[in-house]
């Protein structure tokens, strides 16, 4: 073709030089265009698209957009960046429909509902690429600005609902979230970690895995299945123990082989450290006998190679899971979720309350009522509560038996003394065990109904004994039981969060799954806000108008 220079595909595309730039403020139009109005009329079920189109300028106001722009630094190179508010909306839509990054980019070109929200109707190209979306998510997490997304929905709910500064009545509960990593037994965990260590070296050297594994003395991990390579009768304890010895020998061989490598990739020692951690947790090694698996489960035992933060968890005596616990604090009066948290499955529920308290402090709200289950009673939020914070919870039951129950003893809080059914009075302190004199108990006519111990009767005083007594007394009344039922509302919110987040984690690790839970909480709150009545317009000052 005459007149056209041939296209040089090898030519380097250089950044465009220009003035220092930060992401520009996103200012899409507020009124619906005729084309947008037509799209809105055709949306039947997914009404959140319509709500976000109509209120995106309120959720991402100028002040919040300035915060998001601070995620990026000034640079004299490159093209003008994509507005962060537009990227934040895309991450919320991902949570709403449960799609991947690739599907999100595709939706911006093919789904008119996405285009309606992101202000790119009839666009032939996506307004941003996958790399831009992933990089924005990483920046958002690093700056902890995903927390601000929840705060913005709380602000929007207050503006639309006229909540005012009244104290917060809240309920806190948790639900299991299965981890994204594969859970394996000790043999396969060791084999997986060894295969990972050898594999990164093989990729670096451009060689086959089997050749590198054989050279390292770990040919067992070159196949598709470690246990197939071992080929043992697993019902024979001696054969299983011999197989464990072979796997540990392979681990020692790979350790020595990696030491001899002149330039091992960084990922190889990391994978080997995982194998060493698993050996330390799961294997008992002694000079007197062959290596054997440890009886029971080690504290904080690693259960997955790919996700080191997953743990065995227990939601109840019979309900076990592998992964994390998600926690949600619901505003009982307004219906919005104020704060969320993620903890490994083996961490007690009480430990999340420090993060919950931090989120509430950022919202400058005073907690007046807290409705919880017994798992949170040992938290600092309860133990170090202010005098005006009222706790609603079902108390631990008093153990009943042939001897006098704890409820038969009278506590005098003013004098800090406890009186037994026989009339003996001794001092007590919360969090300690009270022991009545052995000689007094031996001569007491009620001894057979009180204790069989030669050392006398003892009574354990809970660190928060006064609260437990109050809770037990309250749940004996119809009004108190009705108050306990208010906590059910947070279970409904957790069910909604589970609907959008799913029962299995999308990401690996606590922090990324916290991001996912926070954006799901934003979706929950937006649904609550969408059901609120529109605020009344400001009254017109007739005198000023005249």
What does this structure look like?
- By secondary structure, the chain is α+β, with helices and mostly antiparallel strands.
- The chain has 4 domains: 17-143, no CATH class; 186-293, no CATH class; 312-389 and 483-530, Nucleotidyltransferase, domain 5; 406-474, no CATH class.
- Helix content is 44%, strand content 13%.
- The strands form 5 sheets. Strands 3, 6, 7, 8, 9 and 10 form a 6-stranded mixed β-sheet that branches. The protein has a 3-stranded antiparallel β-sheet with strand order 11-12-13, with no helix packed on it.
- Helix 4 (84-97) crosses helix 7 (130-142), helix 8 packs parallel to helix 21 (510-530) and helix 9 runs antiparallel to helix 13 (267-282).
- Residues 1-20 have low confidence and may be disordered.
| Cα gyration radius (Å) | 31 Å
Helix percent band: 40-55%
| Secondary-structure content class | alpha+beta
Low-confidence runs: 1-20
- Summarize model confidence as the mean pLDDT: 88
Tally the beta strands. 15
Query: Tally the helices: what do you get?
Result: 22
| Rough outline | flat
Which quaternary structure do these chains form? single chain
Structural domains: how many:
4
Taking the alpha carbons of the first and last residues, their distance comes to: 72 Å
Main beta-sheet strand count, sense and barrel state: 6 strands, mixed
Strand residue content = 5-15%
